[in-house]
Design goal:
CATH architecture of the largest domain: 3-Layer(aba) Sandwich
Radius of gyration: 20 Å
Number of strands: 6
Structural class: alpha/beta
Order of helices and strands: HEHEEHEHEEH
CATH topology of the largest domain: Rossmann fold
Shape: elongated
CATH class of the largest domain: Alpha Beta
Number of domains: 2
Largest sheet: 6 strands, mixed
Strand content: 15-25%
Length: 185
């Protein structure tokens, strides 16, 4: 009888874990990869005023400091994903004063065998600088992270989308007056 109870408990745990995983995967399909940022140093009011004058956002190719662990497809995907996130959030990227967004990948992780059991976990960690092109002054610096936790969000392209969300989120947090396209509704 004790063995049957243990078997039922084990089956219940497996079923519960499976339901949790299904819910997580469904949520991940809707939401997509995530992006987070944290300032390396506070942004001064003068630098925020300079950020507000920028109307063009130029993402440069990120440097790889992972000894080749970051796949080339990640770097190829970054410009496309960055432009897509700007468009999704209706941020106008027009000619004018340019903000150069440059940085380096300091950590890149693919999912491991252990993460397949508990749910995949992949991330890319970067150090990003936001530079006024005219003056060359660094207006802000942040650690930006692109992260995926669902199987369907795995891969370099999805991590590029998450990292792009982090970068655009930083811009939104430090320049709430970003020019946005009007709603077409």
């Amino acid at each position: 009888m004790k063995q049957i109870a243990l078997l039922m408990l084990a089956l219940g745990l497996v079923f519960a874990a499976g339901c949790d995983r299904i819910a997580s995967e469904t949520y991940g399909k809707v939401v997509g990869p995530k992006g987070f940022s944290a300032d390396v140093r506070p942004v001064s009011p003068q630098d925020e005023a300079s950020l507000a004058k920028c109307t063009h956002f130029q993402l440069t190719r990120l440097e790889d400091e992972t000894n080749g662990r970051t796949p080339p497809s990640f770097f190829v995907s970054m410009p496309y994903e960055f432009d897509k996130i700007l468009a999704d959030r209706k941020i106008i990227n027009a000619p004018g004063r340019t903000l150069i967004i440059r940085g380096r990948v300091i950590y890149y992780e693919n999912s491991s065998m252990a993460s397949e059991i508990f749910g995949p976990h992949e991330e890319v960690i970067t150090r990003i600088q936001f530079v006024d092109k005219d003056s060359g002054k660094v207006l802000g610096e942040a650690v930006c992270v692109g992260r995926t936790r669902e199987t369907l969000n795995r891969g370099p392209e999805k991590k590029a989308a998450g990292l792009s969300r982090a970068i655009v989120g930083w811009l939104e947090a430090h320049d709430p007056g970003l020019r946005r396209a009007p709603d077409s509704d």
